[in-house]
Design brief:
The protein has a four-stranded mixed sheet. Helices cover about 55% and strands about 5% of the residues. It has 17 helices and four strands. The chain has two domains: about 160 residues, no CATH class; about 130 residues, no CATH class. By secondary structure, the protein is an alpha/beta fold. The termini are far apart.
């Protein structure tokens, strides 16, 4: 009887061990991703949490399961995630900052949810997934990347303009690293998949083309303030509205609208601390004021013609847009 009882106890212990092991694996790797976006069909994955929570003494075993769970992630990023990356002290410091500021959650989740719900209304049937992650690259040009139906958000690029990580950057670029710019960054990036590129023959075509992502983002995030689109201080947008008619008159008087000079792209559209009119008060303006002007023209055009978002994104007759917009600030 003792032998039989010992065997029963052994079987029970073995069963309990197997059950416990399965539960641990399920909890950490196989449970269904719980999306903070309950109203929309969007899969959200916090890769940095899963990867850096692997047990150090069992990296090879647990990393295999992370690979199984995120197969596409490892092929769609240029970062090679391995044990060396896992143990990197700099990345651990980055993770500590991200977790401290965002409390292991997706930041701005409510605003993002509203935006993705609107996106699905405009583009039904398109499946998206979103991945948050961190790495050691502080490339301010690509805080959000879109590839193969997935948005990759670099959380370490949205820690706030005063964060020590950005101390080496110019003020106007540091400003763009605030968390409040995360939603607009997502949809400005996502806009690219819906805007066909065409050759641009003059400055008018350029300002209207480069304004399309801003218009797209406005539709995904209704009511978003212009300064969140241009990632600039609020007072610079206030200056734009106060001087809108003078800005437009300047463009006309300088014969810029139909100019083919590429220099105008650098002066009025590309990322910069301010736009370059060659005037003493240039510093009061935001960079990319040409795209801001283009956005005002699109808003006026849509108000006059009631065209859809899809029509705006695909429109390439920019002279028609200007003529039918009635834009006269």
């Amino acid at each position: 009887m003792n032998k039989k009882k010992r065997m029963q106890n052994y079987i029970l212990l073995l069963f309990a061990t197997i059950l416990t092991t399965f539960f641990i694996l399920y909890t950490f790797f196989f449970k269904k991703q719980i999306s903070p976006f309950q109203d929309c069909e969007l899969s959200v994955y916090q890769f940095e949490q899963d990867f850096f929570n692997i047990k150090k003494d069992s990296f090879a075993f647990y990393f295999h399961h992370v690979l199984d769970r995120f197969p596409d992630f490892f092929t769609d990023t240029s970062v090679i995630f391995n044990e060396k990356v896992f143990l990197d002290d700099t990345l651990r410091s980055v993770l500590d900052s991200v977790n401290s500021i965002f409390n292991r959650k997706v930041p701005m989740s409510r605003t993002l949810e509203q935006g993705f719900c609107n996106y699905q209304k405009h583009f039904p049937g398109i499946n998206l997934s979103m991945y948050t992650f961190i790495d050691k690259s502080f490339d301010y040009r690509t805080p959000v990347v879109f590839a193969n139906g997935k948005l990759f958000i670099s959380l370490h690029l949205f820690l706030g303009s005063e964060h020590s990580f950005y101390g080496f950057l110019p003020d106007y670029i540091r400003h763009s690293h605030d968390t409040i710019f995360l939603p607009s960054s997502c949809f400005m990036t996502l806009a690219g998949r819906h805007i066909p590129y065409t050759d641009l023959d003059n400055f008018l075509e350029a300002i209207l083309y480069y304004a399309k992502p801003y218009f797209f983002t406005q539709k995904m995030l209704p009511g978003i303030a212009d300064y969140k689109l241009l990632k600039c201080p609020e007072d610079k947008i206030k200056w734009c509205y106060e001087n809108e008619s003078a800005i437009w008159r300047y463009m006309i008087e300088q014969d810029y609208l139909f100019s083919t000079s590429k220099d105008l792209i650098d002066r009025f559209i590309n990322l910069a601390p301010y736009s370059q009119f060659g005037l003493p008060n240039d510093i009061n303006s935001p960079g990319s004021i040409g795209a801001w002007l283009g956005l005002q023209i699109w808003n006026s055009y849509v108000a006059k013609t009631n065209v859809s978002l899809i029509e705006v994104l695909n429109e390439t007759d920019y002279l028609k847009v200007l003529n039918n917009s009635g834009y006269k600030p």
